[in-house]
Design goal:
Layout (H helix, E strand, L loop, with lengths): L6 E10 L2 E2 L1 H10 L20 E2 L10 H17 L3 H6 L2 E6 L6 H4 L14 H9 L5 E4 L5 H14 L5 E8 L3 H9 L20 E2 L1 E9 H6 L10 E10 L12 H11 L6 E5 L6 H15 L12 H4 L6 H15 L1 E2 L22 E2 L6 E8 L3 E8 L11 H14 L28
Parallel strand pairs: 3-7, 4-5, 4-6, 10-13
Antiparallel strand pairs: 1-2, 1-8, 1-9, 6-8, 9-14, 11-12, 13-14
């Protein structure tokens, strides 16, 4: 593998509970508003807390994860300035991560009369839609799947196996997944509240995040690197496995720290922001906070965290991909937006979560660390970095392409509203014997 090959990100796309488009996501990030989860219109969702932050698209019957992936990919390709002939001329791969794949068909009704379809077909569906015949991978490494997908994308480019990779993650409403987390006693009755003192679990969210990743040489040859100093680069990707407990992280966090250190390489003090996994479960937030201090050293007390799940909910296998999209937006705009307000931060989580005002990225700290962890002990860490900001102040054509593509994508949801919901209080909570959950 050629480690000298520079891997650049030339396009991003997003679909979240706030709507379609990376620009829509950035507006939600900067607004830092509290969004309560929805209750899906599914009569078979017979559980205590049927709460999830839904993409504003009312059709629960359709293949939502596939549609979200397609929509986010279309935006990312537009942002990158790539069309069908360009993709066909390049060696283009597709890599997608997901917790549940495409669950809609198998969970329709009770699944008895409709047959069964392989759920992990997001990458192949997207490749088929785009007319691509190269490398196609679906990744199912639980909630770290999107992180693995981006790491594999970088490896394919560095190995010379692909010039362009469309990579990311997508997850949609799954009655099975939501029911399982209810049985685990891991759903917060209010909303997803990472790092809060009285958090009580997580709340899922739908969404998709997509990157266009390519070699710098390929991007330069097609004129996509007009401002090389501001190029967005994927410079670190590392994986590890706890191999300890089906749902709980290893108590010493050794493999979590290892993944972060390997992704970061040297100079942890050049990290300007961390997008943590931070699910809102009791165990995850404390363990990740402590692991950050081990991986970043004294710098951990000063580096701001941006808690994306507080804004979107836990988007499962899409969470790392959307975390990376958030990191790209932070680098493009040169600032860390304020977090969704905390009522009271858990004193055991000694991390910096800016409230109220954005925090500018220092010129010498233009790297963002993105973490993702999943059941089965799957850990992934990514590092994105860039030179000077390429946001509106810099006149970036890429940002303008993102805005235009996002506005076109958002039109698909223009007539749909955001549902609101709340959870019953005083619910009897169950836990996994002998462990906890990420």
């Amino acid at each position: 593998m050629n480690r000298e090959v520079e891997v650049v990100v030339t396009g991003i796309g997003a679909v979240t509970c706030h709507g379609a488009g990376a620009d829509t996501l950035w507006r939600a990030m900067t607004a830092a508003g509290t969004r309560l989860p929805d209750r899906p219109a599914d009569p078979l969702a017979r559980m205590d807390l049927p709460l999830i932050s839904l993409v504003p698209d009312p059709d629960l019957r359709a293949e939502r994860a596939t549609r979200f992936a397609s929509l986010a990919a279309a935006e990312a390709l537009s942002d990158a300035g790539l069309d069908g002939p360009s993709l066909a001329a390049a060696r283009t791969a597709v890599v997608f991560g997901s917790c549940m794949g495409e669950p809609g068909t198998n969970e329709r009704g009770r699944g008895a009369d409709d047959g069964w379809a392989p759920p992990f077909r997001l990458a192949s569906a997207l490749a088929g839609e785009l007319g691509l015949f190269g490398t196609v991978h679906d990744i199912g490494n639980a909630c770290a799947a999107g992180g693995y997908a981006l790491g594999i994308a970088a490896d394919l480019v560095r190995a010379g196996a692909a010039d362009v990779v469309i990579a990311g993650g997508s997850d949609a409403y799954s009655r099975v997944a939501l029911g399982c987390f209810n049985r685990l006693g891991a759903v917060d009755p209010e909303r997803c509240r990472p790092f809060e003192r009285d958090r009580a679990g997580t709340v899922f969210g739908e969404g998709a995040g997509v990157f266009v990743v390519e070699s710098a040489a390929h991007a330069r040859a097609r004129g996509a690197l007009s401002t090389p100093d501001g190029a967005l680069r994927l410079t670190g990707a590392a994986w590890s496995c706890d191999a300890d407990h089906p749902t709980a992280p290893q108590a010493d966090a050794e493999q979590v720290v290892r993944a972060m250190r390997e992704a970061l390489g040297a100079a942890p003090d050049t990290v300007g922001c961390v997008v943590p996994h931070g699910t809102g479960t009791r165990l995850n937030d404390v363990l990740e906070s402590r692991a950050l201090h081990r991986a970043l050293g004294p710098h951990a007390a000063r580096v701001p965290l941006y808690s994306l799940k507080a804004l979107l909910g836990h988007t499962g296998g899409a969470s790392a991909a959307l975390g990376a999209v958030a990191a790209a937006l932070i680098l493009r705009h040169g600032e860390v937006p304020p977090n969704v307000p905390l009522k009271e931060q858990d004193p055991e989580c000694e991390v910096l979560l800016p409230q109220g005002d954005a925090v500018p990225l220092a010129d010498g700290a233009r790297r963002v660390l993105v973490n993702a962890y999943g059941f089965g002990g799957n850990n992934a860490s990514l590092v994105l970095e860039s030179g000077m900001p390429t946001g509106p102040a810099g006149g970036s054509a890429a940002v303008e392409r993102t805005r235009t593509a996002g506005e076109r994508a958002g039109a698909a949801f223009a007539d749909a509203g955001h549902g609101r919901g709340g959870g019953p209080q005083g619910v009897v909570r169950r836990t996994v014997e002998g462990g906890g959950v990420w």
